[in-house]
Write a structure and sequence with these properties.
It holds the Pfam family Hydrolase_3. GO terms for molecular function: magnesium ion binding; phosphatase activity. This protein is of the alpha/beta class and 298 residues long. The protein is built from ten helices and 18 strands. The protein folds into two domains: 159 residues, HAD superfamily/HAD-like (Rossmann fold, 3-Layer(aba) Sandwich); 127 residues, Hypothetical Protein, Haloacid Dehalogenase-like Hydrolase, Chain: A, domain 2. Strand 17, helix 9 and strand 18 form a beta-alpha-beta unit. It is globular, with a radius of gyration of 19 Å.
Length: 298
Amino acid sequence: MKIEAIVTDMDGTLLKRSGGEDHIGERTRRTLIAAQESGIRLILASGRPYGRLMRYAEALRMAEHGGWLIEVNGTALYDLAGRHREVLAQLYRSEIKELYTMLVKLEYEVCAYQDSALWSHIPKRLLAAKRAYKQAHGLPQDCPLTAGAFALVSDNRSGYPAQHEAQCWEDLPEQMNKLCVADSEERIASAMEMLDTHFHGRFWWGRTSANWLEIMPLHVNKAEGLKQTAARMGIDPSKIMAFGDGENDIGMLTLCGYGYAMGNALDSVKKVAYDVCVSNEEEGVAQIVEQVLRGKEL
């Protein structure tokens, strides 16, 4: 079957973390540009907002080839050629009042995100470990202690220049893109059990790494975002190849004709994938797309 589009997650999938900064490997960049030049459309699907995706889209020359962005796990779509952005859904403060209150009470680190701003609660029990991590990894003195999906402390001020404390739900703005929880693998599992007990059927949630849980409006996810994007592009999902590593990628991988889990993906993702490729650090996306360009049967 001819592949008409490729959709890929970013963190842990397309991006390499070696060298201290997230980046697209040169082999992957060349391969995806070649794929677009052959007529295959490219879609980036991420938990990031468009402001944190644009430099990668530019490096891949997506605008000139009719590429799209699926932002914040499907809360918004961005047509790069037409420079048109459509916000599909967001969380409201009133919706997450119970969530935020319960998570703070249970001493989880909680972050609420807008496009270029975040609000966070960091429990006292984590402060000493975070300060030690910050010093051990040579992070700037003024770096906030907020976690990231793959780090106990992550300096993400370039993507979220406005950062605030939110000790309770009243400190949050009226609208947010997503709510995230950071903790140990065991406590993240406990948080998911708690969510299923108290909020089943009200929100969507899933891990993007063993230590990072994302909570979204119930019907907002990458799969739904991809359905709408594919319809706008006039492409059947069965002719799309997908790549991902986190639980927020599962629906997208199973929707597409060829859904690949990265070698570094969570086991729950590998179980549902069409196949597993090598890790993001080994440029697994490039390896599979090169096979497509050579005409190899998948």
